[in-house]
Amino acid sequence: MEKKCHSQITALTFCILLLLLYPYHARAHDVCIIGSGIGGASVAHFLRRYSEPQTIGQITVFERNGVVGGRMATVTIAGETFEAGGSILHPKNYHALNYTKYLNLKVKAPKHPDDPLSLGVWDGHKFVYKTLSSNSKLPIIQRIVSIANSVRMLLRYGAFSLFRMSIFVEVMLNQFLKYYEDFEARPVFESVEGMLKWAGLYNLTRRTLGEELVDAGLSTTLIQELVTVITRINYGQSVNISGLAGAVSLAGSGGGLWAVEGGNWQMAAGLINHSDVNLHLQEEIKSVSYLGDVYELNSTQGKSYNCQVTVVATPLDEINIIFNPKISVPPRKLQHTHATFVRGLLNPAYFGLGALSDIPELVGTIESADLPFSSIGVQKKHEKDITYKIFSREPLSDALLDEIFSVRVETIKINWGAYPHYHAPERYAPFILDGNHLYYVNAFENAASSMETSSVAAENIARLILSRLSGKVNCDSSNLKSVTSDPSKMNSEL
Asked: Which interval of the chain is the signal sequence (predicted)?
């Protein structure tokens, strides 16, 4: 019995010595993430998914607001929920599709292709283009109206121009799909430039969308009207944005677009809930200091936190975090989009029309300094009135709203620092802000800004963190658990 006890003590002592002698770099690293939008939530998700428990320890997410989601948010009007921030997702947004399946979220069914699109292009004085519409619910009538509108669009903008625009977008999408390839074929990227060049997208950020589309053979009318309507709606800017941001914007106007029932913010909330995260709401980080082996984060609540890895997952452009040592990023201006929700009825006289039914469901605008709004779109038709969403570059005064609307029952105004103000050629902040373990997800936004591009950038940041922690910089991270190599099956892998 005494011999057996002595043997157990010896084994226990040996185990303790092994633990004490185990290399420091193999210990779990604590991670701090600043921002709980889709970028920050995705970093937490991929860190957990691609690593073992002994690699990543506590993940702490700091959110200065009272809810998660960042630039994904909803408003409620007349008991209905409407997207106020990031609104639409493309059928090839495979990370977002994976998230919804993984989190058991319900997807809003995309609009049927035969549903008639009621669209008008407004120049401030008249509709330069306007589709036909019908109140009939008969499928045959809807089909006829849809065909008639297709013919009208072909006659206005030209079949070859529309086809070339479609090809321009399709080429970009096929290149973007490279970011879903297997790890064996897809390296870890230490810079935005390297990430773009690898996929063949870098040159699209060197010239404007207008220049790219002229070279692609699109007509001037198509560029000045329909393309401009799309970029003003999706990015609040003209065709002077970079070619890649413009291509992403055009992709966001295609068919099969979808959203999460109840709000896209649920993707961020769900990923955080499933990633064993310590969430701090209403706590803003005011300083980040590198102390040689850890980062010290100090918050506006007077609290201090230490992490071996820190990830900034919010735009640095309009926040006042003090970094020590100082970091250097190219100056960047955010494009503010004002989303105004109005429950009421539009004023037909404002548009030079005789009846409310003559106003298209979506009013887009050309590029003109005289136009006070970028778009007005119907969100929901109620029994006696309608909920509209208006995008504008500047806040809309109540006096102006009373000109545009004959009836206003309820009004909600939201000011978003929504995306970068794009220009070409673009300059990029580094993914690694200090040469150590301070990372910046939103550096990729200067290429294009969307929920999916944030997710793609976040996945790369997670892989970059794990590769650098393991000392395997510029490797293919083949030791990490990979996703499927077939992008078409990405939405069923989780």
From this structure: 1-28
If residue 288 lies in a helix (H) or strand (E), which one and from where to where? strand 285-290
pLDDT at 100 over 60: yes
Question: What is the DSSP code (8-state) at residue 71?
Answer: T
pLDDT at position 90 is 93
CA distance 292 to 299: 20
Residue for token pair 């395997």: 472
CB half-sphere exposure, 302, CA atoms < 13 A: 0
Mapped onto helix, strand or coil, the DSSP state of residue 468 is helix
The CA distances from residue 264 to 36, 71, 75, 270, in Å, are: 13, 10, 12, 10
DSSP state of 352: T
Beta bridge partners of 341: 389, 412
**CA 31 vs CA 35, 260, 298: distances in Å:** 13, 29, 15
Q: What is the CA radius of gyration of the chain?
A: 25
Structure tokens that stand for 59 in this block: 């993940």
Alpha carbon distances (Å) from 140 to 94, 115, 147, 347, 357? 34, 11, 11, 31, 21
d(CA 118, CA 41): 37
End-to-end Cα separation, the chain, in angstroms: 52
Instruction: Using DSSP, state whether 327 is helix, strand or coil.
Output: coil
Distance of CA 181 to the CA centre of its chain: 20
Query: Are residues 68 and 39 in contact, defined by beta-carbon separation less than 8 angstroms?
Result: no
Q: What is the pLDDT of residues 31-52, one digit of tens each?
A: 999 999 999 999 999 999 999 8
Can you tell me the distance from the alpha carbon of 407 to that of 489, in angstroms, rounded to the nearest whole number? 48
Give CA–CA dist 119/142, Å, rounded.
Answer: 15
pLDDT band at 15 (very low <50, low <70, confident <90, very high): very low
Which pLDDT does position 114 carry in this prediction?
Answer: 52
Per-residue pLDDT tens over the stretch 313-351: 999 998 999 999 999 999 999 999 999 999 999 999 999
Helix then strand count (H, E) for the chain reads 13, 20
